[in-house]
Amino acid sequence: MVTLLGPSGSGKSTLIRTLNGLEKYQSGTITFNGKKVVPNDKNWQTLRQKIGMVFQSYDLFPNLTVMDNIILGPTKVQKRAKEEVIAQARALLKKVDLLDYEDSYPRQLSGGQKQRIAIVRALALHPEFMLFDEVTASLDPEMVRGVLNIIRDLADQDDMTMIIVTHEMDFAKQVADRVLFLQDGKILEDTPGNQFFDHPQTTRAKEFLESMNF
Ligand SMILES: Nc1ncnc2c1ncn2[C@@H]1O[C@H](COP(=O)(O)OP(=O)(O)O)[C@@H](O)[C@H]1O
Ligand SMILES: [Mg+2]
């Protein structure tokens, strides 16, 4: 569980988008499971099937039900059997307390519910990696907890690598195995999670934590 922290504009989203081939890079290398990624469209298409991504704005298809949103990728892209995918989708919906909503449309859901569906939709693709970029940033405070709990459960499962951008400092402290602190498009610090919050290495990170009242 890697957490990206840093002030607004420091490059957190850019870095996370780079890891999914959504952003071109001019130097450096990306290594996935020990293999250097050759950045072309075809390779990214293959890799993206292993990488689940959830953003601040839940981009569910408005014209599809919750269930159809979830099973679209697994059935159309991964060509998995519909019955199997639906059964798995229901199990995931149950986990996020939204089993009753499979026939609902996104407009009928609250922001927190939509974001939980967006997470389920990503998980239904059996990703090896999950990328989360400020997934709670646009939610009402009472919705934040439910979404963070789901991510925390995933973190506890131990078999999934996750890279998370968040401004929820308590949450970050609880879950982060490793913190990357960014500033001006650069990684200023790469510190174990259990050290960063009490003993950041740089003055800039210390100031950042203070500015977050942490
Ligand atoms: N490593 C980098 N090199 C060049 N430009 C960068 C780099 N990282 C970020 N930027 C630029 O900085 C701006 C803010 O980055 P962004 O990723 O949106 O920040 P954050 O998500 O931390 O708020 C963007 O315009 C982006 O193109
Ligand atoms: Mg951002």
UniProtKB/TrEMBL annotation:
Is the keyword ATP-binding in the record?
yes
Q: Which key words tag this protein in UniProt? A: ATP-binding, Nucleotide-binding, Transport
Signal peptide range = none
Lineage, top-rank taxon, reads Bacteria
Is Iron set as a keyword in this record?
Answer: no
InterPro entries, alphabetized? AAA+_ATPase (IPR003593), ABC_ATPase_HisP-typ (IPR030679), ABC_transporter-like_ATP-bd (IPR003439), ABC_transporter-like_CS (IPR017871), MetN_ABC_transporter-like (IPR050086), P-loop_NTPase (IPR027417)
Write one Gene Ontology MF term.
ABC-type amino acid transporter activity
Its family remark reads: Belongs to the ABC transporter superfamily.
Name of this protein: Arginine ABC transporter, ATP-binding protein ArtM
Instruction: Read off the lineage from the record.
Output: Bacteria, Bacillati, Bacillota, Bacilli, Lactobacillales
